[in-house]
């Protein structure tokens, strides 16, 4: 089979029509997942077993099973449950986009919460003790000391998770969504030219990945400006 | 033949028909079992390959050879930036073509060589996770305290001895936690190989759904199986970590 | 000689796995029958529908026996044997919805498709027909046939276009299918649905094609195809004119 | 807090970590203006003792009073105590993500509710006192160790505490920087600040301390004026310790 | 190596890091049995100098001889030199994943090809000498700092070196542990071991050193017997440094 470059040029614009959907999935489930992650992380570090255990179980289940299976359970499995089909959330679960957001959010939330927890645990105890000795209460210490330092510690790992999330969005084509991958698969099914289409799509994803990495590096530099010893003897 | 096609069971609902859940699975247990065996096989094969790819990548990145560094950088950029599903599809469709082309260079007689879905999928996920392992191994090698290495050099050990007895011996302990996560990624990525028709658990579930029309219970079943695998891996890593960090616990 | 045959393995009653784990269905019977006549061994390869032709071209298997219709578009890439069953499509929808999609002359009424979501399998003849005839209809693409039925029942799509034999047998005639009905006449425009369903093979193999044709003809003449069909359907699903009679 | 009564009273204080007794029947009274140096071998409970005073550790037995307030779990009391007790750590523990000025202003604003401008003035005042006003807008990492520790002292002083606690403030510093920190501490002592200071800097102890306390195994082994302590220690363990510290 | 000729000769040695000259026209001759203490402010090139001697750093200019062997890139020479030169680091640098005994046996087996049983005997001999034979089966982290440093000394001694290099061996230690390490070093000196020792422990220098060398900015600023060095230093920089080190 020969490599047909002209095909790429005709297919690329079509595939890029799916980029909007890819970004919607990425941003929406990224933001919702972060919110979920913060809740889970707070439950984990609360020191109360009745908050810690449920969070731990949740994280264990969602990190221990494939995202594809989670997507299938939400999309194909949930509608079998009467209370979902009759419930008020049915408009969300009826819609494949809603299902994709739910599955991706639940999944990334589990991962990110562990990253955030790592950041929180990474904050030097001595710094918190200094805050305590100065009379700052728990809440003030968390807001003014733990949060900014933990955010900076967690950022590199968080960046990697955003990239994982981007890659996971490619799986929504299995539940009828026409994201970039979904469109590409349809084109392949019509043109029978998997290499041209998939390779050019892979390059598109790589460019987005590099873009995310650059963005994260920039945020990291900004957040971490206090970690560089510049201009001082 | 065709029994199920003609007399379809009513579709499973959790609410009104208790006990139905297990009923639906009757006849599919052995399929899930063999599907799990396939998952285990893919996992073990890709684990070996992943370690090899990771070590090669790390060695290349740490080497002073610019070309090796470039290749390894390219490798990690490509495989960390491309969705797994695309890598698997590409390798599945592309492997036969590429292999045949290579083989024909050596022996023009060869009509075609094929990579079966098992190996296409296995190599694909090993390449993907190997790109992450590259960074882990690299970091672990760098994490070995330079002081240990200098002490070994000062004692007169040669390059090989320093590498083997000090670097590697310390490095694997450092790599272990992240490596455990890579193993979890591998096991979970095996689910994607169902897309190219490998008869693993998720594919079994799809077939079972075609016959029983009970996606919820079938996919939950797959989830449970994967959770089992993840648990075994996690426990193994914990044991190894316990063993590997003896020297970090104080005796008192 | 071993022939590797690609199929979906999830398309009851044409090709699917029984709960005993065995492959069964009309396509499987045809493949087995053809192989027996040709004196070849068989090996089945399960392949998701949208990758069927790329996989054949990538040498993943030698033949497609997967209810694939012989269409012009496909003929550009692969060859087909002579047909072994009919190829038609029909829409299935909810009875209550009173969908009025076609006029008396059996032509679609595009306005009435507005706002409807139609489920179709990716890369199927139905998709090609839809894209050409009703480019403005909203189509939802599936990787397999079964999820499409699930979503029809769940109300995620308003209608699906599919194989009427399968739809009748494994859906409409069952309990789950109550409340649903065919909402279109049988559509079989040759341009999209081709002359029927055939066995796909890579181009440039006239000899293999001739042997396949002969074997199919023999199956028809021996009454085998009718026999196969009656295992699943109350009627034969091929055209007797394709045989010698 | 009135000057007539002791500022700190520790009565039969005990503290256990699991089965290990880090402090045992510990008694100490510190009056206003007193300067106390605490020394003793590693693990003898010096840090634990000092951390009990501002309740970074909770004592398990006995009672501790800061002024009139007894240290208990009551939050209001605790905050009142922490406001009166300044603490300086071995590892500086500056807030790494804030500039020096912000380090000095944070607790003033949050705990004392000092208005921003006033907080800044106070901060600059104490930065001047520790002689590094020019570093106000730098981040901690950009300062040398000795400078960081001086900032840490200034940060504690900004809260206008009645007592200052020092836990080995110079032992993480390079030799050249130790003196600059000790100088600041000596100045503070001269101004009449009440201080409890864990340190092995015997020169400092000699010139500043009113009392030297030697701890071992969670107890006070010897307590004396510097003259007696260094000149004629009575206890064998003290003698051994002093010989180890002073010979090199 | 014969006793008549110097054990270590450094001639016009220079070492640059980028454009920065860490060592500059450095000359030093050490004869067998000599004990040399090197001191100087941070960054003055002490570590660099000592690391050049067993080629943990490569010098850029001049020549270095260990016995008859000149230090070059030749591997065989390098191994011969490293066998004769023992080194002790500030941060101990024990192999964390091996027990104490294994730490002492590894290089013997790999470099000297000593049989296992003999290696163990040698190891136990030196562990006895540094007075911690009972710790043989523990891991480094389970030992106190002073004990770890003594193990590190024993490890170097196991290779039966001609010279021992010490790079601030006590500056990472708590005060109480410094003496136990200095004692081991003093013993070693008494046994006639040739030693070059970077340290700021002036008591040790006084009692042990044949010569004290004061370095600054990569050069030798002053070189004298301990009596003269501490009693009547000639150079201004030396005086300033000594005043900083000794006052506290
Ligand atoms: N959080 C803790 N958990 C368990 N044990 C502790 C804890 N904090 C201190 N200890 C133990 O209590 C004992 C006294 O510790 P402390 O830090 O008070 O000693 P120290 O005199 O300050 O020693 P150093 O000079 O090393 O700072 C030590 O044996 C220490 O191991
Ligand atoms: N690998 C290196 N790369 C760049 N510069 C270095 C390197 N090693 C040392 N230097 C620089 O060389 C100078 C001398 O360093 P060296 O470690 O020899 O000083 P030192 O006298 O041992 O100081 P200290 O008392 O802090 O150990 C320092 O300014 C240091 O920054
Ligand atoms: Mg302490
Ligand atoms: Mg040094």
UniProtKB/TrEMBL annotation, chain A:
NCBIfam families for this protein: HEQRo_perm_3TM (TIGR01726)
* Recorded superkingdom: Bacteria
Report the coiled-coil segments. none
Family membership, please give it: Belongs to the binding-protein-dependent transport system permease family. HisMQ subfamily.
Q: What UniProt keywords are attached to this protein's entry?
A: Cell inner membrane, Cell membrane, Membrane, Transmembrane, Transmembrane helix, Transport
Recorded GO MF terms: transmembrane transporter activity
Protein name per its UniProtKB record: Amino acid ABC transporter permease component
- What membrane topology is annotated for this entry? Multi-pass membrane protein
Location (main, coarse): membrane
In this chain the ABC transmembrane type-1 domain maps to 19-216
Give one Pfam hit by family name. Answer: BPD_transp_1
| Gene source species | Octadecabacter arcticus 238
Single GO biological process annotation from the record: amino acid transport
Cellular component GO terms held in the UniProt record: ATP-binding cassette (ABC) transporter complex
PROSITE patterns xrefs: ABC_TM1 (PS50928)
Q: What is the lineage of its organism?
A: Bacteria, Pseudomonadati, Pseudomonadota, Alphaproteobacteria, Rhodobacterales
Intracellular or extracellular location(s): Cell inner membrane; Cell membrane
Q: Where do the TM regions start and end?
A: 20-45, 57-78, 192-212
From TrEMBL, chain B:
Residue intervals passing through the bilayer: 32-60, 85-106, 118-137, 216-240
The UniProt entry's GO CC annotations, sorted and at most eight, read:
ATP-binding cassette (ABC) transporter complex
Give the ABC transmembrane type-1 domain ranges.
36-237
Q: Where in the cell is it found?
A: Cell inner membrane; Cell membrane
- Highest taxon, organism lineage: Bacteria
Q: Which UniProt keywords apply?
A: Cell inner membrane, Cell membrane, Membrane, Transmembrane, Transmembrane helix, Transport
Q: Which GO terms describe its molecular function?
A: transmembrane transporter activity
Q: Which family does it belong to?
A: Belongs to the binding-protein-dependent transport system permease family. HisMQ subfamily.
Identification of the protein by name: Amino acid ABC transporter permease component
TrEMBL record, chains D, E:
Q: Which SMART domains match?
A: AAA (SM00382)
Family annotation (InterPro entries): AAA+_ATPase, ABC_ATPase_HisP-typ, ABC_transporter-like_ATP-bd, MetN_ABC_transporter-like, P-loop_NTPase
Keyword rRNA-binding (UniProt): no
Q: Which GO terms describe its molecular function?
A: ABC-type amino acid transporter activity; ATP binding; ATP hydrolysis activity
Under the heading SUPFAM superfamilies, the entry gives: P-loop containing nucleoside triphosphate hydrolases
Matching entries from CDD domains are given as:
ABC_HisP_GlnQ
Q: Which residues form the ABC transporter domain?
A: 8-242
**Keywords for the protein's UniProt record, in alphabetical order:** ATP-binding, Nucleotide-binding, Transport
User: Which protein family is named in the record?
Assistant: Belongs to the ABC transporter superfamily.
Q: What is this protein called?
A: Amino acid ABC transporter ATP-binding component
């Amino acid at each position: 089979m020969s490599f047909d470059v002209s095909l790429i040029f005709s297919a690329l614009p079509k595939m890029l029509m799916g980029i909007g959907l890819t970004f919607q999935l990425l941003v929406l489930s990224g933001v919702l997942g972060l919110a979920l992650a913060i809740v889970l992380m707070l439950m984990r570090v609360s020191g109360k077993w009745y908050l810690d255990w449920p969070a731990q179980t949740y994280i264990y289940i969602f990190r221990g099973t494939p995202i594809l299976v989670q997507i299938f359970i939400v999309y194909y499995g949930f509608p079998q449950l009467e209370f979902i089909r009759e419930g008020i959330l049915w408009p969300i679960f009826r819609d494949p986009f809603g299902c994709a957001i739910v599955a991706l959010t639940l999944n990334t939330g589990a991962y990110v919460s562990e990253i955030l927890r790592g950041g929180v645990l990474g904050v030097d105890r001595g710094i918190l003790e200094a805050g305590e000795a100065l009379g700052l209460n728990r809440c003030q210490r968390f807001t003014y000391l733990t949060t900014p330092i933990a955010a900076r510690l967690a950022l590199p790992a968080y960046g990697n998770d955003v990239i994982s999330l981007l890659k996971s969005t490619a799986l929504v084509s299995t539940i009828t969504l026409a994201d970039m991958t979904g469109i590409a698969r349809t084109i392949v099914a019509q043109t029978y030219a998997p290499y041209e289409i998939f390779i050019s799509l892979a390059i598109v994803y790589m460019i987005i990945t590099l873009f995310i990495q650059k963005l994260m590096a920039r945020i990291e530099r900004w957040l971490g400006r206090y970690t560089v010893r510049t201009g001082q003897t | 033949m065709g029994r199920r096609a003609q007399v379809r069971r009513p579709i499973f609902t959790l609410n009104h028909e208790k006990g139905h859940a297990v009923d639906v699975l009757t006849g599919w247990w052995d399929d899930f079992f063999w599907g799990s065996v396939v998952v285990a096989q893919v996992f073990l094969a890709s684990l070996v390959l992943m370690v090899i790819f990771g070590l090669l990548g790390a060695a290349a990145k740490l080497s002073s050879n610019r070309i090796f560094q470039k290749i390894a950088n390219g490798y990690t950029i490509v495989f960390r930036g491309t969705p797994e599903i695309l890598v698997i599809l590409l390798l599945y469709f592309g492997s036969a073509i590429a292999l045949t082309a290579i083989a024909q260079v050596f022996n023009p007689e060869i009509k075609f060589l094929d990579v079966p879905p098992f190996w296409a999928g296995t190599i694909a996920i090993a390449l993907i996770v190997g790109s992450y392992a590259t960074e882990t191994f690299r970091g672990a090698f760098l994490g070995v305290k330079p002081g240990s290495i200098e002490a070994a050099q000062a004692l007169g050990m040669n390059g090989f001895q320093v590498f083997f007895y000090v670097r590697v011996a310390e490095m694997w302990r450092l790599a272990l936690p992240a490596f455990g996560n890579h193993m979890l990624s591998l096991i979970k990525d095996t689910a994607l190989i169902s897309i190219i028709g490998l008869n693993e658990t998720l594919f079994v579930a799809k077939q079972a759904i075609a016959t029983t029309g009970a996606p919820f219970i079938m996919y939950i079943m797959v989830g449970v199986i994967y959770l089992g695998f993840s648990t075994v891996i996690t426990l193994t890593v914990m044991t190894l970590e316990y063993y590997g960090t003896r020297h970090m616990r104080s005796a008192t | 000689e071993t022939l590797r045959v690609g199929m979906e393995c999830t398309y009851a009653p044409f090709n699917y796995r029984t709960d005993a784990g065995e492959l069964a269905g009309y396509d499987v019977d045809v493949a087995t029958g053809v192989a027996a006549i040709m004196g070849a061994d068989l090996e089945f390869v399960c392949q998701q529908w949208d990758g069927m032709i790329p996989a054949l071209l990538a040498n993943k298997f030698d033949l497609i026996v997967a209810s694939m219709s012989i269409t012009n578009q496909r003929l550009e890439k692969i060859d087909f044997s002579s047909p072994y069953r009919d190829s038609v499509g029909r829409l299935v929808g909810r009875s209550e919805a009173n969908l009025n999609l076609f006029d008396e002359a059996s032509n679609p009424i595009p306005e009435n498709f507005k706002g409807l979501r139609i489920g179709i399998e990716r890369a199927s003849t139905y998709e090609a027909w839809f894209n050409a005839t009703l480019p403005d209809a909203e189509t939802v693409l599936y990787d397999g046939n079964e999820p499409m039925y699930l979503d029809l029942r769940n109300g995620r799509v308003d209608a699906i276009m599919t194989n009427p034999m399968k739809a009748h047998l494994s859906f409409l005639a069952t309990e789950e299918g109550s409340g649903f009905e065919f909402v279109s006449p049988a559509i079989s425009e040759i341009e999209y649905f081709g002359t029927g369903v055939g066995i796909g093979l890579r181009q440039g193999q006239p000899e293999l094609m001739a042997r396949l044709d002969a074997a199919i003809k023999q199956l028809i003449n021996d009454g085998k195809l009718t026999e196969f069909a009656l295992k699943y359907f109350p009627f034969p699903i091929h055209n007797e004119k394709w045989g010698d009679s | 807090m009135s000057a007539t009564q002791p500022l700190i009273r520790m009565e039969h204080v005990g503290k256990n970590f699991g089965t290990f007794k880090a402090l045992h029947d510990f008694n100490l009274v510190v009056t206003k203006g007193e300067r106390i140096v605490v020394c003793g071998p590693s693990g003898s409970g010096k840090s634990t003792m000092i951390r009990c005073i501002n309740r970074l550790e909770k004592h398990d037995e006995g009672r501790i009073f800061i002024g009139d307030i007894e240290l208990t779990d009551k939050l209001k009391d605790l905050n009142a105590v922490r406001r009166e007790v300044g603490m300086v750590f071995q590892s500086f523990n500056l807030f790494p993500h804030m500039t020096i000025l912000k380090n000095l202003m944070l607790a003033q604003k949050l705990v004392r509710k000092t208005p921003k401008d006033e907080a800044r003035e106070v901060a600059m005042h104490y930065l001047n006192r520790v002689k590094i006003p020019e570093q106000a807008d730098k981040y901690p990492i950009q300062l040398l160790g000795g400078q960081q520790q001086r900032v840490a002292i200034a940060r504690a002083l900004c809260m206008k505490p009645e007592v200052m606690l020092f836990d080995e403030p110079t032992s993480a510093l390079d030799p050249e920087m130790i003196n600059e920190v000790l100088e600041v501490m000596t100045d503070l002592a001269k101004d009449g600040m009440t201080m409890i200071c864990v340190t092995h800097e015997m020169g400092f102890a000699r010139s500043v301390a009113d009392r030297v306390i030697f701890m071992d195994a969670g107890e006070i082994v010897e307590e004396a004026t510097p003259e007696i302590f260094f000149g004629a220690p009575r206890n064998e363990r003290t003698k051994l310790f002093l010989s180890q510290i002073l010979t090199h």
